[in-house]
Amino acid sequence: MNPHQFDIDTLTHTAKEIRGDILRMLEKAGSGHTAGPLGMADIFTALYFNILNHSPEDPLWEERDRVVLSNGHICPVLYSTLARAGYFDLEELKTLRAFGSRLQGHPNRLDLPGIETSAASLGQGLSISVGMALAARLDDEDHKIYALMSDGELQEGSSWEAANAASKWQLDNLIAIVDRNNIQIDGQTEDIFPIEPVRDKFEAFNWTVLEINGNDMAHILQVIESALEMKGQPVCIIAHTTPGKGVSFMEDKHEWHGIAPNRMELMEGLAELGLEEVAY
Amino acid sequence: MKLAPNLFTNPEMKATRAGFGEGMTALGEADENIVALCADLSGSLKLGDFISKWPDRFFQSGVAEQNMVNMAVGLALSGKIPFATSFGVFMPMRTLDQIRISVCYNNANVKLAASHTGISVGPDGATHQALEDIAVMRVLPKMKVIVPADANETKKATISAAKISGPVYLRFGRQNAPVYTTEDTPFEIGKINRLRDGKDVAIVACGVMVYESLLAAEELSKNGIEASVLNCHTIKPIDAETLIEVAKECGAVVTAEEHQKIGGMGSAVAEVLVESENVPMELIGIEDRFGESGESGELMEKYGLTSANIVKSVRKILKRK
Ligand SMILES: Cc1ncc(C[n+]2csc(CCOP(=O)(O)OP(=O)(O)O)c2C)c(N)n1
Ligand SMILES: [Mg+2]
Asked: How many whole angstroms separate alpha carbon B75 and alpha carbon B35?
C-alpha cells in the first residue's frame, strides 16, 4: 500500500512544492539540471504519494516497488520527492551538489536511502530494471519495477537491447515511463537525432504502449493504474511532458536542460508557482 | 623553455577544451578531410565554430557513443580524419570494445577527444569524473595517449594528432586553468617538455598537474631544493629516453596526475624506470576510489592534487634517495 494515498488536490499541491524545492536547490547549488526535473514533478509525485507500495522508514523493505531512475541527471526531482515522502530531512535538500553532501550531482545508491541504483550514464536503467523484474519473478514477488527514462536515452542502442530483453521474458511486472519532453542538450530531439515513431518502435518490440499527458495528475493516475492491470507484456508509458513545466520562461527551452536558475530567476519562478519567494 | 612571463602572477585562465575548439577550427581550414562527430555535447566540446563553418563535416551523433565511434571508423577507413568527441566517462569508457577492435585493431585513423576528465569536473560528481581513461587507453596496442597541460598546448596537440596516422586519444578538462605555454613553446608528440631544470628531484606531470608542479618547484627552490619539472603530455608512446636521463641526473622521481594512480601516467613512468634506472619514486594520483561532488578546488585539495602535496612528496622522497 502507498503510505500517503494523497488525493488529486493534495498531489497537485505537493507537485508544486516539489517544483519549488527543485528551483531552490538548483539556485543554491549554482549548477545542475532544471528542465527535466520540473517536467517530471507530477509523475514523481503521483508515484511516491499515491501509487507506489513503499516504506520510507524502511527503504530496503523487500516487498517495495522499485523506481529505477535511468536518466540520473534529473535527480533534483527524485531528491525532493524522497525528502517530502519521508526518506530524509527536507533541510538536506540545501546541500545538493555541495562538498560532503549525500545529494550528489548524480544519484549515488551508497549515499542516500531510497536510491535504487546509481545513475548518470544514459541508457542503462532499463537493463537494470529488466534484471530486477527477472529477480522478482524468480522470487515470486509481486512488486513492480518502474523504469523512469528520458527520450534522449532512447538514442542509446542499449535501451533497445533492454526493450528486447523485457519482451523476450514478457515482463509484465515492468513498467517503463519515458519522459517524452522533446529536448536534449544540443536541441530538440527530432532535430538532433530523431527517435520517432517511439510508439511504433516499442510496439514492434512487443511492448504494450500507453500515452499520457505527464503533467495532468488525474490522467497520470488513471493510466498508471490501468497499466498495473495489464498482463503478458511489459508496458511502456510515453509521458508527454513540458520541460521546465510551471515556469513560463523555462518551458520547452532546451537551453534549460543543464543550467541552474540565478537568484532573480528563482524568485520569478517561485512567484509564478505561487510559492513563498524565499531562497535556501 | 619558453613559458609565458606572467606564469606565476596572473596567467590567462582557460579550459583545455577551449584549446581543442580552436584546434578544430584551424584543422578545418587546413584540411577538408577533417570531420567531427559529437554525442549531444557539442557546446561542452567547444565545436560551435567548426559546426557553423562546416556544417556538412559535422555529424551530430545523438546520445549514442558506441555507434559514433564506429561511424568514425567507417569515415576513417574511407579517407576522412574523424574526431569523435564526448565526455571521457562516455567515450572512451562506454565505447571500449569499439575502440579496441574497430579503432585499434584496424589501426583506423580515428582521433578520440574527451573533455570533462579528472576530478576537477566538480559538482556533477563521481559519475562524470573520468579517472580511469588514461589507464584504459594506454593499454591498447596502437593507441597514442595525449594529455595537454594547458589550452595552448591542447590546440597544438589537436593539430599534431591529425598529422600523424592512426588512433589517438586526447584528454581535456572542464575547468578554467592557467595558460602559460606560448606559441613558441615546443610541442612534439612523444617528446617530454622539460620546463625547469634542477638536480635534486624530477617531477613528472601531465594535464593540470604540470602547473601545480611548477608551483611546487618554486616553493621547494625557496628552501634550497632544486626540482626538474617535466611536462609528460604524451603518455603513450612515452618518452623513455628523457625519463631515464632525468632519473640518472636527479636520482628521484615524483609523478602527479589527475587520474587513478593504478595504471596512469605514474605507472607508465614506473614501467620505464623499473627496467632501466630504478630510482625511488612517489606517485601522486587518485587512490583507487571514485570522486564526488564539490567545487573543483575543494576536490583537488581533498584528493591531494595540489602543489602543497607535491612538495610533501618531494620531501618524503628525498629521505629515500
Ligand atoms: C551515455 C551518456 N552520454 C551522454 C550523456 C550526457 N548527457 C546528459 S543529459 C543528456 C541529454 C539527454 O537527453 P534527455 O535525457 O532527454 O535530456 P532532458 O530531457 O532531461 O533535457 C546528455 C547527452 C550521458 N549522461 N550519458
Ligand atoms: Mg528529453
From this structure: 9
Pocket of ligand 1 (CB under 6 A): A 35-36, 71, 73-74, 120-123, 150-153, 181, 183-185, 243, 257; B 39-41, 63, 65, 90, 94
* Extents of the domains making up chain B: 12-179, 193-315
Q: Among residues B36, B91, B40, B70, which one has the least CA distance to residue A153?
A: B40
CB B254 within 8 A of CB B281: yes
Which contiguous run of DSSP H or E holds residue B81? Answer: strand B81-87
Q: What is the pLDDT of residues B4-47, one digit of tens each?
A: 999 999 999 999 999 999 999 999 999 999 999 999 999 999 99
- pTM here is 0.97
Report CA torsion sign: A198, A204, A206, A208: positive
Single out the residue of B212, B213, B162 nearest to residue B189, CA to CA.
Answer: B162
Q: Tell whether B126 lies on the interface with A, counting CB pairs under 8 A.
A: yes
Beta bridge partners, B112, equal B84, B169
User: For the domain B193-315, what is the CATH code?
Assistant: 3.40.50.920
Tell me whether the omega of the peptide bond preceding residue B237 falls within 30 degrees of 0, making it cis.
yes
**Which CATH class, in words, describes the domain spanning A8-273?**
alpha beta
pLDDT tens, position by position, B196-209: 999 999 999 999 99
Query: Hey, where are the domains in chain A?
Result: 8-273
The reply to whether A123 touches chain B by the CB within 8 Å rule is yes
Euclidean distance between CA atoms B193 and B242, whole angstroms:
9
A151-160 in b/e form (b: 16+ CB < 10 A) is bbbbbbebbb
Q: Which fold has domain B12-179?
A: Rossmann fold (3.40.50)
Question: What's the gap in Å between the CA of A103 and the closest CA on chain B?
Answer: 9
